Amino acid sequence: MITSELKQRDITQNFINGAWVTPSTEETAPVFDSNTGSVIGSSPLSAEADVDAAVSAAKLAQKEWRTLSPSARADYLRAIARELEARHEELSQLIMREVGANQEISRGSQTLTPIASFNIAADILESYNFVENIGDNLVMREPIGVVGAITAWNFPLHLVTVKAAFAIAAGNTIVIKPSEVAPLTAAVLAEAVQSAKLPNGVINIVFGSGPDVGEAIVTHPDVAMLTFTGSTKAGMRIGALAAQKVAKVALELGGKSPLVILPDAPLQEAVEFGVGDLLLNNGQRCDGLTRMIVPKSLLPEVERIARETMDAVLVGPSTESTSEVGPLVSKTQQDRVLGYIDKGISEGAKLVTGGTDPIETAEQNSQGYFVRPTVFSEVTNDMAIGREEIFGPVLSIQSYSNVDQAVEIANGTEYGLHAAVFGSDIDAALSIAARLEAGMVTVNGGESDIRAPFGGYKHSGIGREFGRYGFEEFLEIKAVRVPKNFRN
Ligand code: NDP
Fold this sequence. Notes:
Blueprint: E1 9-10, E2 14-16, E3 19-21, E4 28-32, E5 39-44, H1 48-65, H2 70-86, H3 88-98, H4 103-107, H5 109-127, E6 131-134, E7 137-143, E8 146-150, H6 156-169, E9 173-177, H7 184-195, E10 203-205, H8 210-219, E11 225-229, H9 232-243, E12 248-252, E13 258-261, H10 267-279, E14 291-295, H11 299-311, H12 331-346, E15 350-353, E16 374-377, H13 384-387, E17 394-400, H14 403-411, E18 415-416, E19 418-422, H15 426-435, E20 440-443, E21 457-458, E22 461-462, H16 467-473, E23 475-481
Parallel strand pairs: 1-5, 8-9, 8-11, 9-10, 11-12, 13-14, 13-19, 14-17, 16-17, 19-20
Antiparallel strand pairs: 2-3, 4-5, 6-7, 7-23, 12-22, 15-16, 18-21
The structure holds NADPH dihydro-nicotinamide-adenine-dinucleotide phosphate.
The site of NADPH dihydro-nicotinamide-adenine-dinucleotide phosphate has 30 residues, from helix 8 and helix 9.
């Protein structure tokens, strides 16, 4: 339950079995305004007993929830979407502060995609064919049971709702642990769920830390599936723990996504596209195009365009409408990104623009977690900034001599979430797209779509979210062998 108005938001309870329940511990974690560094709220640091209560509620609720007709479940999903819509501005304001996302994205994908997730999951549910005939087999899709969801802070509402909407649409119930860094919108979701009169126990939210609440969810014997968004390191840990009880896992992890600019690409447009993509959500995106791979002969021109584009970006508080890039989520994240910029310089990459100096605009509050949008060139895959996920507004430009080398550099990463190609000859661009090892490839600026699959190859994850693919992730498959003469 949230106990006060926008400025100070203290979540004091967990949302379990349709009600606000006092946690078994008194510890709390602060929530900071990324623009100012001041405390704007808190959330409980719950414990295993709270997870037990939530899982019990979810297990009980699942018995009836799974038997509801698709249209009855879909009606609830649409009701939640309407309740979120009614809270759209409140959610946007929270995300601006918690995450530092600018106004456009806070009012856009950060909050509109969650509403769309519930509506699209409802559409899919109503049109989905749960039974298929193969010979004597009736192949049935069934809910898995209780799903445990653990999420990151960068799209705090979206990451929670993309899991909740599709999991419950499929007939499962869910226990969610949002990020303790950005927990506030999850409490608003709980209020929306209550207002939508979703049956008790279908969506449960337990606030707390990864090692405590997160691991208690992962290892709970009654949690049949884990769906996780976060770092590859935590994903590996969760996968290893889940393997001990042979539970299904869906993992959406990190990225180091390349944009290959082909020699015939419209250079200004391609570089501006890459910089724009990188800066979305202040660079705090798993699928951001953080590496720009360009022909060696065009490198000086690419550096010039990238520098001019970056330098024209307005950095400032996310609460101001003119700001295009806001602060990072936390002091930890600011230090981490500044550390990578230092590392880039010390490893010999060429600093094209940006760096570790503080932002100089007069209205900046020095306590905000700002980082200068930064461009490095002459980056190689063996440098930390070419290899590791930075999760901030830092672009690495790499160069190639021929397209085979471009593909090799692009694929020379442990990640495989997103990649992009820009080129005038569409057949050539598509043939490069086919060679890139990534779950999503953007060609010449194509748009993502919540009905299309989202997820990665290699260390970027297992499974897919969004649309029918995300929905099916939350279904078990049963083959019932019935001779045809026994069928109606
Ligand atoms: P973390 O992996 O640190 O945390 C993610 C979530 O996992 C948090 O809720 C965290 O809890 C929890 N957690 C951490 N350790 C454990 C554990 N041992 N057991 C159970 N739960 C645990 O990631 P960040 O929150 O820092 O988010 C940034 C990362 O997320 C980046 O690497 C980014 O690439 C990735 N990401 C991937 C996306 C994708 O779709 N592929 C989308 C968005 C982000 P706590 O609250 O204590 O931190």
